[in-house]
C-alpha cells in the first residue's frame, strides 16, 4: 500500500471513528477493520480495534501507525504485528507428590562371590579419610580419621595381602578405654600402636601377631601391661596401603559396619577403587565369618544417575533422549530401595540392576542430561513410577500384565511408530529351533516332562506381541508358558516373534530386544533425533498418563 493510499485509508478511518462517536446506535465499518486476530469484519464492537491494509500491515502515515479504539483513533507502535493467540497451558496435575525415602543410594560394588579379601581406596581428589558408620537414615557418624591418602581394609584375620605381606589378627590390648579418638590416637602414637573403636568405646592396641601365643610371648618379654586380644568376627582392619601398618580397627558387632568417607576441603572428593573413580562414601562389611568384605558405595542419587546414564545409553545420542534415560534411571533407583537388603544395599552395579562404575565414562552431555532433570521424577497420581526400559520394542511395547502378570496403569502397551525410523540392529532376527532343542529348553527350564515337541502355538496380545506359548508333544501332552518367560523358553530376544514349523524345524522370526515393557531406548533415540521430540514427549508416550515433577 503506497503512501497516498495510507493517507486516504487513515482519512476514511478517522471519519468512521468520528461518526461512531457522534452516533453509536447505527454505524458502518469498512471491511478492512478487524478485531485482534479475527478474519471477519467488526460487527458492532470497537474496543481494542486496529486497522490493517490489503497487505496485512497496519495503516501507516508519516512513519506512524494508528488503531481505532474506544477513545477514537490512536497512535500505536510502528508496524505492530497482529497479536498472537495465547498459548494453551497444561495445568499442573493436582496430586500430592510422594517424595523419595532417601537422597542417598547404597550400591553393591562387590558382594557374594565377588566380595573381596582386601579393599583398597585412594584419594584422587582429597586428602585423607574419615571413619565411622551409617545409621538407618543413611546419615554418617564419624568416629575416627586418617591423613593417609591410600588405605586398605581387610577382615581381622591373618590376611596375606600384596607382596606376601601378612597382617596379623592378634594384638596387645591396653587395659584402659579412652573418651575420644584423639586421646586414644595420641597414646597409640606414643607406643607405636593404633587406636580402635569397639562398640562405642576407644581402645589402644599394640603390635600384630598371628596367634595368641605369639602375642602373649611379646607381653611377657616386654613386661607390657595388657592382654592378648583379637576382636570379633565382624571386625575390620584399616592399614596403610603398601606397608601393612595398622591405622585403625572398627568392630561394632552386627550393629554397624565400617564406613569410610573421603575428605576434600575444596573440590568434591573423588576416590579410586578397583580401577574406577567414585563420588560418595564406602562401606566395608563382614557379613559372614570369613575373610571376605562386601563393598558398598553410598552415593547421592544425582551422582549415581550420572554414573548410570552413559552405560545405559550411548553418550552421543541426542540430549532429549539422554534426559529421558536419566529420568528413567533415577526413578528405577528410588523405587528399589533395600532391594538387596540381605546384602546391605539397594542395587547392584551390574546388569541385574543398572550398570554403574562410578564416574566411569560420564561426559559433559550425559551430565547435562542429569543436571537438567535433577530432582524430577516420573509420576502417576503422585506416586513415583517404576520405569522399566529396554533396548528395542520391534514395533510395539507391551502391557505389564502380559509381561509379568501384574497390571500397572502406566505400563500399557503402545504401537510404536517411531522406532522404525532409526537403525536398531534388532529390527529383524531369525533362527532355527529343532524339536529336540525346544524340548530340552522347556524341560530343563520349567521342570516339564514333555517328549519331542510336535507344535508350538503363539498366543498374541492386542499389540501383536506373544503373551503365551502352548507346547504340544508327539504324545499329545501340552504345557503353556506365559509372559516374559516366553522369550526365555526359546532363547529369544524379545516378545515380538512368530514361530513356524518347516521341514521338521521351528523357524523363529522376530524383532526387538528386551522385555518390551516401558520405554524403548531406540524409540527414544528416534523421537529425539528424527522427530524433534522432548524428553517429556518421550516419557509420556511410553508411560501412560504420567507427568514429570
Structure description:
The structure is a single chain. The relative contact order is 0.10. The longest helix is centred in the N-terminal third of the chain and has 20 residues. The protein folds into 4 domains: 74 residues, no CATH class; 87 residues, no CATH class; 177 residues, no CATH class; 82 residues, no CATH class. Helices cover 21% and strands 31% of the residues. It has 549 residues and is α+β, with helices and mostly antiparallel strands.
Output the radius of gyration: 36 Å
Tally of DSSP helical segments: 11
Structural class: alpha+beta
Total of domains: 4
Which parts are unreliable, with pLDDT below 50 for 5 consecutive residues or more?
1-31, 45-61, 78-82
What is the molecular shape? globular
Largest sheet: 10 strands, mixed
Q: How are strands sequenced across the largest beta sheet? A: 16-13-15-14-18-17-10-7-20-21
User: Could you tell me how far the N terminus lies from the C terminus, measured between alpha carbons in angstroms?
Assistant: 51 Å
What proportion strand? 25-35%
**Quantity of strands, as a count:** 35
What's the average pLDDT?
88
What helical percentage do the residues reach?
Answer: 10-25%
Amino acid at each position: 500500500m503506497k503512501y497516498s493510499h495510507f493517507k486516504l485509508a487513515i482519512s476514511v478511518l478517522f471519519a468512521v471513528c468520528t461518526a461512531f462517536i457522534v452516533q453509536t446506535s447505527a454505524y458502518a465499518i469498512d471491511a478492512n477493520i478487524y478485531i485482534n486476530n479475527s478474519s471477519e469484519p467488526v460487527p458492532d464492537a470497537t474496543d481494542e480495534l486496529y486497522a490493517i491494509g490489503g497487505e496485512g500491515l497496519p495503516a501507516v502515515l508519516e512513519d506512524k501507525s494508528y488503531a481505532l479504539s474506544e477513545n477514537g483513533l490512536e497512535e500505536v507502535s510502528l508496524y505492530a504485528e497482529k497479536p498472537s493467540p495465547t498459548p494453551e497451558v497444561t495445568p499442573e496435575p493436582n496430586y500430592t507428590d510422594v517424595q523419595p525415602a532417601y537422597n542417598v543410594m547404597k550400591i553393591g560394588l562387590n558382594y557374594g562371590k565377588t566380595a573381596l579379601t582386601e579393599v583398597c581406596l585412594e584419594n584422587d581428589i582429597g586428602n585423607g579419610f574419615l571413619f565411622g558408620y551409617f545409621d538407618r537414615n543413611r546419615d554418617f557418624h564419624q568416629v575416627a580419621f586418617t591423613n593417609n591418602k591410600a588405605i586398605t581394609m581387610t577382615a581381622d584375620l591373618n590376611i596375606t595381602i600384596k607382596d606376601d605381606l601378612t597382617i596379623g589378627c592378634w594384638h596387645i590390648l591396653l587395659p584402659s578405654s579412652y573418651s575420644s579418638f584423639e586421646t586414644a590416637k595420641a597414646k597409640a602414637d606414643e607406643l607405636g600402636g593404633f587406636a580402635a573403636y569397639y562398640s562405642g568405646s576407644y581402645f589402644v592396641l599394640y603390635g600384630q601377631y598371628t596367634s595368641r601365643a605369639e602375642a602373649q610371648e611379646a607381653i611377657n618379654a616386654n613386661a607390657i601391661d595388657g592382654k592378648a586380644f583379637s576382636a570379633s568376627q565382624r571386625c575390620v582392619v584399616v592399614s596403610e596401603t603398601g606397608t601393612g601398618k595398622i591405622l585403625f580397627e572398627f568392630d561394632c558387632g552386627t550393629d554397624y559396619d565400617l564406613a569410610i568417607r573421603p575428605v576434600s576441603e575444596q573440590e568434591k572428593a573423588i576416590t579410586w577403587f578397583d580401577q574406577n573413580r567414585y563420588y560418595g562414601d564406602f562401606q566395608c562389611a563382614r557379613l559372614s565369618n570369613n575373610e571376605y568384605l562386601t563393598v558398598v558405595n553410598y552415593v547421592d542419587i544425582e551422582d549415581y544417575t550420572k554414573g548410570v546414564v552413559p552405560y545405559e545409553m550411548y553418550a552421543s545420542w541426542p540430549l532429549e533422549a539422554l534426559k529421558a534415560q536419566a529420568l528413567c534411571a533415577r526413578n528405577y533407583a528410588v523405587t528399589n530401595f533395600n532391594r538387596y537388603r540381605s546384602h546391605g544395599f539397594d542395587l547392584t552395579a551390574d546388569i541385574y540392576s543398572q550398570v554403574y562404575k562410578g564416574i566411569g565414562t560420564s561426559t559433559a552431555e550425559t551430565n547435562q542430561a542429569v543436571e537438567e532433570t535433577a530432582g524430577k521424577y516420573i509420576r502417576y497420581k503422585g506416586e513415583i513410577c517404576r520405569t522399566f526400559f529396554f533396548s528395542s520394542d520391534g514395533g510395539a511395547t507391551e502391557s505389564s500384565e502380559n509381561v509379568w502378570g501384574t497390571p500397572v496403569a502406566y505400563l500399557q502397551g503402545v504401537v510404536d511408530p517411531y522406532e522404525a525410523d532409526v537403525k536398531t540392529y534388532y529390527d529383524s532376527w531369525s533362527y532355527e529351533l529343532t524339536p529336540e532343542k525346544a524340548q530340552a529348553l522347556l524341560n530343563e527350564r520349567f521342570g516339564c516332562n514333555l517328549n519331542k515337541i510336535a507344535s508350538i502355538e503363539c498366543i498374541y496380545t492386542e499389540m501383536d506381541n506373544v503373551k503365551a506359548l502352548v507346547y504340544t508333544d508327539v504324545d499329545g501332552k501340552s504345557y503353556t508358558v506365559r509372559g516374559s518367560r516366553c522369550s526365555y523358553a526359546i532363547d529369544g530376544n524379545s516378545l515380538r516373534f512368530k514361530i513356524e514349523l518347516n521341514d521338521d524345524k521351528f523357524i523363529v522370526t522376530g524383532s526387538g530386544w528386551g522385555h518390551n515393557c516401558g520405554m524403548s531406548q531406540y524409540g527414544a533415540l528416534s523421537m529425539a533425533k528424527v522427530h524433534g521430540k522432548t524428553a517429556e514427549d518421550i516419557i509420556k508416550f511410553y508411560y501412560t498418563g504420567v507427568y514429570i515433577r
